[in-house]
Design a protein that fits this description.
By secondary structure, this protein is mainly alpha-helical. It contains twelve helices and four strands. It has a domain of 33 residues. The protein binds heme C (4 copies).
Length: 383
């Protein structure tokens, strides 16, 4: 009798532990697609509240007058923000400090005795970051709309954004019979704790390999889809879904993942997002190779790079779509060109209905009008 009640207690305790790992009800479902297609989002109110608190926008600072002498006339070494008035320039420096280096202050980027000096790597990186932010806000409206981004979108008061990635060394952690934890199958937060390959970023957010599961031919052909690309694709999709805090059906109708006409408009936003991230990584970060000190480099010596989570941080729109850019002419202007070390990645438009994108794209410097999968069109200038 004693043993039986002991077993019961143990079972109840074990059951309680298992259930404690589950999310308690209630769960809210929101229908987003046509009736009967099962395109529903499952939200857990407590988790959502935590995300909303985490993604509160920064305080808005009053914008300075555009009148008066220009920063380019007054200061000695202003290469990007020369068109701002001195008031606007000073205001932006103060905000940049609170967004990126609140603990260190101006001296995180400046030599205190000479603000024109470029010898700190952080200042050189910050100048490139200003150009990158301008590029996103003026050249990628097709993804960021008018809300755009500021340094805060990614940095949130940290020197280094919380979500960055490095390429995984192919032979990293070859651990004998315990398995290889390099780019091989192992649970990883990068892919939503699924046991999928750990680096879907190098092929898809740096290189432009095909994000594809379903082949276009009945028989396997050279260069077609493979099991490797299937795993990589699902890995990237897990990253995208967790970065935005959504389910797969936010973008797809799960009866036909590949079909554009059955997908939601958000899938086209994501399609542009992928192309944007590739461009930012190649043109603005990888070309900073040699500027970052060794302690900032990854295991294969590569520079830190960004992905969807760098901006989104768990929200379907970064900072839940707050109007953060208002009053920052220095971050919206036409970007000053960057000398790119890498060839820019061409942008190709998706072909509605086929689920495939053409290989290659328009050459550098052309403005392409891209038909989006939903029938509207948008233009992007390739660089
Ligand atoms: C995150 C890096 C960063 C921080 C922090 C920062 N700055 Fe700057 N600052 C820059 C960059 C980059 C430039 C050059 C901008 C350009 O080339 O258009 C610059 C340029 C300047 C200049 C012009 C110097 C000249 O003669 O060329 C002044 C003045 C200045 N900053 C003041 C400040 C002050 C004051 C603070 C603190 C409130 C500050 N900065 C904080 C990155 C930073
Ligand atoms: C789209 C995301 C994004 C935006 C927007 C962005 N940054 Fe960054 N920033 C990054 C990434 C990624 C890195 C590389 C992280 C690292 O240094 O390890 C970085 C690095 C930096 C560094 C180097 C920090 C260090 O300690 O190594 C500075 C300084 C910086 N950013 C300043 C800025 C400023 C100023 C702005 C706004 C004008 C800005 N960033 C906007 C993503 C962003
Ligand atoms: C934020 C939108 C978004 C979310 C969320 C999302 N996807 Fe995708 N998915 C896309 C886009 C965009 C593409 C096409 C990428 C391209 O062609 O560059 C795609 C492609 C795919 C493909 C390849 C289809 C083919 O043509 O072979 C599969 C399979 C897929 N997604 C499955 C999933 C799964 C499973 C999830 C959830 C874990 C998911 N997706 C979450 C946007 C999304
Ligand atoms: C540079 C910052 C940045 C990066 C990186 C980024 N996004 Fe976004 N994204 C935004 C902003 C800002 C918006 C809000 C646009 C708006 O206000 O409608 C947005 C909106 C979206 C939306 C539309 C949401 C909706 O409900 O309308 C989707 C989907 C999306 N992003 C997917 C992605 C994916 C997938 C990636 C990675 C491949 C990505 N984003 C990378 C800044 C970014």
């Amino acid at each position: 009798m004693k043993t039986r009640s002991f077993r019961l207690v143990v079972t109840a305790l074990a059951g309680g532990l298992v259930l404690a790992a589950c999310e308690p009800p209630p769960v809210v479902t929101v229908q987003r697609g046509f009736r009967g297609t099962g395109m529903q989002q499952v939200y857990h109110p407590a988790n959502l509240r935590a995300e909303v608190d985490k993604n509160a926008p920064p305080p808005v600072t009053p914008s300075a007058s555009p009148d008066g002498p220009k920063a380019g006339q007054i200061y000695q070494n202003v290469k990007v923000l020369g068109d701002l008035s001195v008031g606007q320039f000073a205001g932006l420096m103060v905000d940049i400090t609170s967004w990126v280096a609140p603990a260190q202050g101006c001296s995180y980027c400046h030599v205190a005795t000479n603000f024109a000096d470029d010898s700190l790597y952080t200042k050189q990186v910050a100048r490139r970051m200003i150009q990158m932010t301008q590029r996103v806000n003026s050249g990628w409206k097709v993804h960021v709309q008018n809300n755009g981004v500021t340094c805060y979108t990614c940095h949130r008061g940290n020197n280094v954004p919380t979500n960055i990635w490095y390429s995984v060394s192919p032979d990293a952690g070859a651990k004998g019979s315990l398995g290889n934890h390099g780019d091989k199958i192992a649970p990883s937060t990068k892919v939503g704790m699924s046991s999928l390959t750990n680096d879907p970023f190098t092929p898809y957010l740096q290189r432009s390999e095909e994000i594809r599961v379903i082949g276009n031919s009945p028989l396997p052909v050279a260069g077609g889809t493979s099991i490797k690309h299937t795993e990589l694709t699902y890995g990237l999709m897990m990253h995208m879904a967790t970065s935005l805090g959504v389910n797969c059906t936010y973008c797809h109708n799960s009866r036909a993942f590949a079909e554009w006409p059955q997908s939601s408009p958000q899938r086209s936003s994501a399609w542009y997002g992928i192309r944007m991230v590739r461009e930012l990584n190649n043109d603005y970060l990888i070309s900073l190779n040699g500027v970052f000190p060794d302690r900032r480099l990854g295991p294969t010596g590569d520079v830190p790079k960004l992905n969807c989570a760098t901006c989104h941080q768990g929200a379907y729109k970064p900072l839940y779509g707050a109007d953060i850019l208002h009053g920052y002419p220095g971050l919206t202007g036409k970007p000053t060109p960057v000398q790119s070390a890498e060839a820019p990645v061409p942008v190709a438009a998706p072909v509605p209905g086929t689920g495939t994108t053409p290989v290659g794209g328009p050459s550098v410097g052309t403005t392409v009008s891209m038909a989006t999968p939903t029938g509207t069109s948008a233009s992007v200038t390739t660089r």
